[in-house]
Write a structure and sequence with these properties.
Blueprint: H1 4-23, E1 37-38, H2 41-51, E2 55-60, H3 65-73, H4 78-81, E3 88-93, H5 100-105, E4 113-117, E5 123-128, H6 133-146
Parallel strand pairs: 1-3, 2-3
Antiparallel strand pairs: 2-4, 4-5
Length: 152
Amino acid sequence: MQSALPALLARMFCCFLMTGLTSSVRAGEFPAGSPRFATTYQDFLAEQKRTGKPSVIVFSAPWCSSCQAMKRKIYPAGPVKRYHDQFVWAYLNVEDPANFEANKKYQTAGLPHLEFLNAKGQSVARLLGKKDAKTLAAQLSAILAKTPAGPR
């Protein structure tokens, strides 16, 4: 019985990990009600240039539990939802080589990292760490108050 215990614990641990990994939203998938996210830096830049709107870049990783929690609960939440169409949104995986340029430019050191850009593409604010919907909505409102959307 004693020699079977480590094997049992190992199987239980694997089941726990698999349950956690499969219940979360996958890296390129977003829950219903999320903003329309660009998932590569180049796609984001093209959309930003096309629309001339202020922007939100979310730096994330599949292994970041706070990032995944915000993805599931904060971005689709009511207080944030009202700002979806007023910004260009990017959700960039820091491990994707397509996003390394953005990681370097915005000096991504901790996750989640939210970078806010005005309509000219200049960084105007940053939030680091897990935030609630009211905090994010307040930041989005402040950005709009300073940098109204419009063509460049």
